[in-house]
Amino acid sequence: MDYRKSIIEIIRDRSSRRSYLPQPVEPEKLGALRAGFTGLRGPFGGEARFTILDATGWGEGKINSLGTYGTIQGARHFLVGIIRRGDHDMEDFGYQFEQVILRATDLGLGTCWIGGIFSRSRFADPAGVREDEILPAISPLGYPTPKRSVTDSIIRWSAGSRSRRPWRELFFHGDFETALTEESAGRYRDPLEMLRLGPSASNRQPWRVVKEPHQDIFHLYLRRSLGYDKLIKAVDLQRLDLGIAMSHFELTARELGLAGQWARLSPSLSPLPERTEYVRSWIAERSDGPTATPERGESRSAPAPASLGA
């Protein structure tokens, strides 16, 4: 995707907003957002599709009838994402949906990832969800109120949305015992920092990264929160979070001119911490090619960002 501002600035600017002004979004902004709905593809090859629903008149404005159970107030427009069921569908969806969310932020619009507390059936029919598809998440689109609502403030406080885990709890060097310092991260300091700032369900931040010593190879892991995989049966929220993490890391790396690819390797890290599973690895490219050889049949260069236009 093409963004008007630096992706680093956009990621830092983005925050979840749950209460909105009645002001509708201008057609040209909605058009700029829709322009990028085609051409996106996830790191595992899945292609999500998106639509924007106008909720005007739904239940005469009653929030519960919008299917968000009071968590979103005043929003007229909703971004809805859909993807075909399959292996790594949640990671692919999170990767693509976050890129659209960041474009909305770039356009000056408020958003909020909603993957758990909303009625999927309420949005599925208007969005045209097919039998082999799933609707993992939605987001309001609009102009946030200057002051957060009481509900919004309570949700942010309960989730600890203002805080993020420090580097030493997320990023490691060679194994899961040695913390990766910002200095040791080298030119990948900013991609890792933008990954750290990514949104996640209930702010659990389930991503872990291990850097190979002396090489710009970064192994991405999912550290599952205890019991969280059973919280929402319709979707795996923490796999969505990993897709968001991959998107932030890759977008930032590409903005900084750091070419690379996501691939499946065989990291020799054993034993893994409890509830930790390998996802994929980022392999930096040198002038003579990648710094490591992916497993046969499992590598794929990360797709070039698709343009959304001005």
Q: Your description of this structure?
A:
By secondary structure, the chain is of the alpha+beta class. It folds into two domains: 7-154, NADH Oxidase, CATH 3.40.109; 167-290, NADH Oxidase. It contains nine helices and nine strands. It has helices at 7-13, 27-34, 89-106, 120-127, 150-159, 167-170, 182-185, 189-196, 237-255; strands spanning 49-54, 77-84, 133-141, 171-173, 207-211, 217-223, 260-263, 276-286, 289-290. Strands 4, 5, 6, 7, 8 and 9 form a six-stranded mixed beta sheet that branches. A three-stranded antiparallel beta sheet has the order 1-2-3, with helices on both faces. β5 and β6 (217-223) form a beta hairpin. It is globular, with a radius of gyration of 19 Å. It starts with 6 loop residues before the first helix and ends in a 20-residue tail after the last strand. Mean pLDDT is 86; it is low at 60-65 and 299-310.
